[in-house]
Design brief:
By secondary structure, the protein is α+β, with helices and mostly antiparallel strands. Helices cover 15% and strands 29% of the residues. The chain contains two helices and eight strands. 31% of the residues are buried.
């Protein structure tokens, strides 16, 4: 199964998702992962770096990498197209974390996302929030097809 490029965003550690079972999760440094579903009745949002230029993107990448190294148990998920991907097992290679195992979870169209501006605030990066749009996801990364462990349908 060859996967397309994946757009990533970071989620805080300790997150509980009832639809996805997670043990230990990982992502490549500089390509953190996915926004979980928004609470019912709340407007879903995301943030985009495209309108802020490459210098802001580089600044956020560096801060995210620093956050990852300082918080090795941060939970990460990813989403691409209509699929949700839970990443399992963290392996450190030099200064990077490599994806070594995945559980691919198929979702439905129109993924709903929670506002993650608070994390950008903690990382001291000034980013506005805006309604969710696929082209506004950040940090592209290709998942190696040999990293996929198992595929299951969301209920």
């Amino acid at each position: 199964m060859d996967l397309p490029d994946v757009y990533f965003a970071i989620v805080p550690s300790g997150l509980r998702l009832n639809q996805i079972y997670i043990h230990g999760l990982s992502a490549t440094c500089g390509a953190p992962v996915y926004f979980p579903p928004a609470r019912k009745g709340r407007m879903a949002s995301t943030y985009s770096l495209r309108s802020f230029g490459r210098s802001k993107e580089r600044a956020l990448r560096k801060k995210v990498e620093k956050h990852m190294h300082g918080h090795p148990h941060t939970v990460f998920l990813s989403a691409y197209s209509e699929k949700w991907v839970a990443l399992e097992e963290r392996e450190k290679l030099g200064d990077q974390f490599q994806v070594v195992q995945l559980k691919v979870i198929l979702g439905s169209k129109g993924l709903d996302f929670r506002n993650v501006a608070s994390l950008a605030g903690k990382l001291k990066v000034d980013i506005r929030t805006r309604p969710h749009a696929e082209h506004e996801w950040i940090f592209r990364h290709k998942i190696p097809s040999n990293a996929i462990e198992k595929v299951r349908q969301l209920k």
